[in-house]
Records
---
Amino acid sequence: MMNEELLIEPKVTNEELLIEPKMTNEELLIEAKKARIHAYAPYSHFQVGAALMTKSGKIYHGCNIENAAYSPANCAERTAFFRAVYEGEREFEKIAIAGGPEGKEADQVCPPCGVCRQVMMEFCNPETFQIILADGKGRCLQRSLKELLPLGFGPENL
């Protein structure tokens, strides 16, 4: 007699196979630190990286990009959001941000600027969207968008 292999197919739908496993805050911060390396900061020498997680678990990276004229510069957080939106994403769960002087770990956390908070308000539920910040000393801070932008103006205000 021949040995026959018993094939057992998983009882998983195609949609479930496409869902990426969600990262922990620590893993997301590691991704933000990796993104920081790509920063273009020849003027301030302050590098920022961001890792934005969608509700499905997909990660979008961003870094700050400076410009000699200053105002055309773009923050890491907005770079990540704009990349995600370009790819068709509209639902987000959290973002990790890591920033500090070029070639050094940061002494303090690097919170998003007001413009970045406003962009987050456009696409995120301020009650549930989480912002994870870390310094270079292992300290971590997590806040909701509502905590960082308590009276934010968003689509529901129109």
Note: The longest helix spans residues 25-36.
---
Amino acid sequence: MTELDGLRQYAVAQEAEVLAVTEALKLQDALPDVAALSLAGILAKLEVIVGADRDIGDPTDFPWPHIASVVRDLKAITGDLPLYQSDRSTTRADVARHLKQATQLVEPLEVEKATTHVRQAATQFAEASIFPKPAEKPAEFSKSSRRRRAR
């Protein structure tokens, strides 16, 4: 694998991660519109809320200790939620969908970068060219062109 292939795969993976996180955030945003039908449902919603905000500055600040206390109380009443195991085929399908979308987003950028690179290389080549610029014609060319015009 070349360095360019590795960079491309990294860019696609980064974009796929952004798409997956965006999808998860949309589900979190929809959570308030979902009605819990049991104490276990309320507990599940609270665990999503607590789990979603793992990057909080200080977990001892209000309201986090209070919410954690409510979660503990609900677990004492209802018991722990059953462990959820996602269907691997669903997970694989989601990953494949995110990678496909990411590839579709990254490929135009690669074409644009390649085009820019070719333009820059051509410009650098032209600037470094050994051919004289028209205003810098050697004197012997100027003399021969005068002779042709005189004939």
Note: The chain is about 70% helix and 0% strand.
---
Amino acid sequence: MFGINGWEIVLLALIAVFVLGPERLPEYAQKLAQMIKKARVMAEGAKGQLKDQLGPDYEDINWRQYDPRQYDPRRIVREALVEPLEDAASTLKSGGTNDDIGEVSAFGGERPWIQQDPVAWDPMRPTPYDVDAT
């Protein structure tokens, strides 16, 4: 909850007691309780409105897939780093073309600089042009 642990909540409560004083503390505690009740009513209203708008499809929704606690950031980063490498490797294996995006050539149709081994370094071969990188 907002990155606040139990001890910090206790500390905030003690500061509130000292700042507000015993005269005004019950009034502000009552206002806080009313705000929490209003927030709950608003959340239930939004949930009911969503249920009405979606109709029978509401029961088919898998709400667990939208829970951010289930996602492992390490797995997401690992997958994001591996996918581009696999795409680049498939592009190199296919001789510089990728069927998904089409062929991009900076010098026209002929490409005499493509060798049998596309990984080998050749100083005479121009640098590949990447449309997405510019």
Note: The chain is about 50% helix and 0% strand.
